[in-house]
């Protein structure tokens, strides 16, 4: 793993205590935005103020446990990276449906079922790697970034389904917060850049208080608040309904895809030479997600997922230390027992939420695009990405119309991220029909057409969605072989085979065996020997390929060029 130049504290490094604490507080403030989802459930369930406080405290406890689960690095659980947790709209639709059918007990029980589904999926990810390539993960991340930006604009401008007008006060708060974050991130160094979002949010709180937007009175219990309080679980129960299995399974699949994309993004941020996801880390992250969801269901919370904004924040600030994740977890667990601080975060002004979401969305969206464009895309892959991205946008633009679909399909059509990722997986499966993983081309004698070879490998690499740099190396290697062997009397046969991890190219011809020396030939050997040019070509081929072999079979020669993908 090569350290990227922009990192200040990498994943295995521990920042000084002061930086660790302030970094954790910055992430806690950003994650607290997602408490809006359990708050929605609490309001729909008509909970009393004291029950509302209990649910918020227990939800924070769930966030604390989830962050620790995501960041630890063990054989069975944990991604090993700073990968934040958050409540998600993916589970909101099924949870509201469950609330209508059976109350909070059914919400909590079915949330546990959703977590079990993710735990069961985690060991299978390695076998599904061909069906879930990196460009799909990149699409998921890009859609998440677009969704976060949309939420940021909506919150920042004070737009709601009931009020389709811009609130000037909200726009002022969001604008000042966003400008503060941007200026500190771009034109400052050190602490200013590392804590740009936290500083911007504090500025937003101050401006909101001055404009009368920040008000805690509406959610403080009638008896007041104690400094320390154990949350009660009288409102917590569990029930099960077979009708809700399908919606929660679909939501769990979408959450799994998002977790895979987020963990992949965390890997990429921490490794300058990143080329493909580490499936052991992905499986650990998905397993941790399932355990966290089960825990939230047991203590009385809703579905939880990885949080793309915190990964975008870590990339923006250059602090990706796993230790920050542990500090975040401990911080949320502590906040669960300190009601005044919990309510301050739960009552975060909407324009402050909007500014933070919009800022981090830029880094999330760009990371997704980088993962997509690192691959060669032909018409099939272009349609998969384009159609899926368009469907995600359609789900947000025509949300009201799509809510008329049957209840069992609402978890898919009611959320842009879910619809986009489901479309991507299904279309990817369909578009694989007719794509051969092993292809060959026969070049007749009488003038080898090297342009035809380059075109053949480029087009096939796009069909496979192979990495651009690997295909460039492969084309260089094949062309070099053709230039050295000349024009064999029987022509040349080129065979290429590919999977997600390996690209093999076999070149067969009738002629002299090409020597592949392990050391570079000296200038004297190149000049004085008749085979000097071939020795140099063989050495260069060894350097360009990850593995190269050549052997004779009678009069014919077969060369194998292997490239790690």
Describe this structure in words.
With 565 residues, this protein is of the alpha+beta class. It has 2 domains: 337 residues, no CATH class; 127 residues, 2-Layer Sandwich (Heat Shock Protein 90). The chain has 22 helices and 7 strands. It has a 5-stranded antiparallel beta sheet with strand order 3-4-5-7-6, covered by helices on one side. A two-stranded antiparallel sheet has the order 1-2. Strand 4 and strand 5 form a beta hairpin. The longest helix is centred in the N-terminal third of the chain and has 30 residues.
Set out the fold topology.
Layout: H1 17-31, H2 36-44, H3 49-71, E1 85-87, H4 92-121, H5 134-157, H6 168-187, H7 191-194, H8 196-211, H9 245-270, H10 279-299, E2 304-306, H11 308-317, H12 322-335, H13 339-346, H14 350-373, H15 379-397, H16 399-402, H17 410-413, H18 416-431, E3 438-443, H19 450-464, H20 468-485, E4 492-498, E5 502-510, H21 523-528, H22 532-544, E6 547-553, E7 556-564
Antiparallel strand pairs: 1-2, 3-4, 4-5, 5-7, 6-7
Which features would summarize this protein structure in a list?
565 residues; two-stranded antiparallel ribbon; Heat Shock Protein 90; 22 helices; 2 domains; 60% helix
